[in-house]
């Protein structure tokens, strides 16, 4: 066993020293050997969404919040998406996080997600794996019920959504703070509409395993949301719409309403922090000060190329896919950056 461990640790060193200029001239090819869908079926507990190497944000679709196989929020066997949340655990086998979930929609406003057996009863949408793609730092899917294309990318502490809407007078985005894994719980959330493009707040949750487990996480997260298109916000507490621009409680939701033209893109940036709302706003301003989704995606992909290309292997495409996907998964564990 000791001999095996030493060999594994020595291989990257040998390959790094023996790498030629030809080996290093195009780091971009390593991204082609990462398949984020590996591990999203069976008992893998991984997620396919956008992540940054050792970053705070893992922006990914949530397909279900019940059953052990969905403790990362996503399972390949599912056929509907409830929304896109900002934090996830990968391959842990325990549940937690799934903070600041957003879901774009058109038509009648629905405050609940509905069920996988009856997705039309809520704001969730059906999707097909044929219209879903993922690579390091990027995720894309077509929400069939709304004819909306959702794209996701990230920076170290921020998530970046790009939604392409159809023409509609009833376009909206659902912000649902009440969503959590079945055996976890929401302790407290706040929501403050600062202006027609900005929302801030915090979310406290209690998770990590089944009720009664000795060790459970108490997590506090602050967030700041910026939307590229002005919205008219409707806030609901305990399933009832209220007046005003602020709300607090365990079951807090907001509907961001606006009109869209055909193929109009609405961008949403979300910064998070374990420290304060001010720090979440600072992270957003520092890391994504613009509205260029492609620029953020490019920078994140360059970072992934840099990290993954530190190790070069000479193997079949199948082995390269296994190796680089495993290396990728080792670098998407949430980190408490500030």
Structure explained in plain terms:
With 338 residues, the protein is of the alpha+beta class. Helices cover 18% and strands 35% of the residues. It has helices spanning 2-18, 21-24, 277-287, 293-308, 317-329; strands spanning 50-51, 58-62, 80-81, 83-85, 101-106, 125-126, 132-135, 138-143, 148-154, 158-165, 168-176, 185-195, 198-207, 217-227, 232-237, 240-242, 246-249, 252-260, 264-273. The model is unreliable at 1-25 (pLDDT under 50).
| Largest sheet data | 9 strands, antiparallel
**Rg calc:** 20 Å
Structural class: alpha+beta
Q: Beta-strand percentage?
A: 25-35%
Overall geometry: globular
Distance between the termini: 39 Å
Tell me the quaternary state: single chain
In terms of per-residue confidence, which ranges show pLDDT below 50 for 5 or more consecutive residues? 1-25
Count of DSSP strands: 19
Classified by CATH, the class of the domain at 102-329 is Mainly Beta
Mean pLDDT: 84
* Widest beta sheet: strand line-up: 7-8-9-10-19-14-13-12-17
CATH topology of the domain at 102-329: Beta-galactosidase, Chain A, domain 5
The tally of helices reads 5
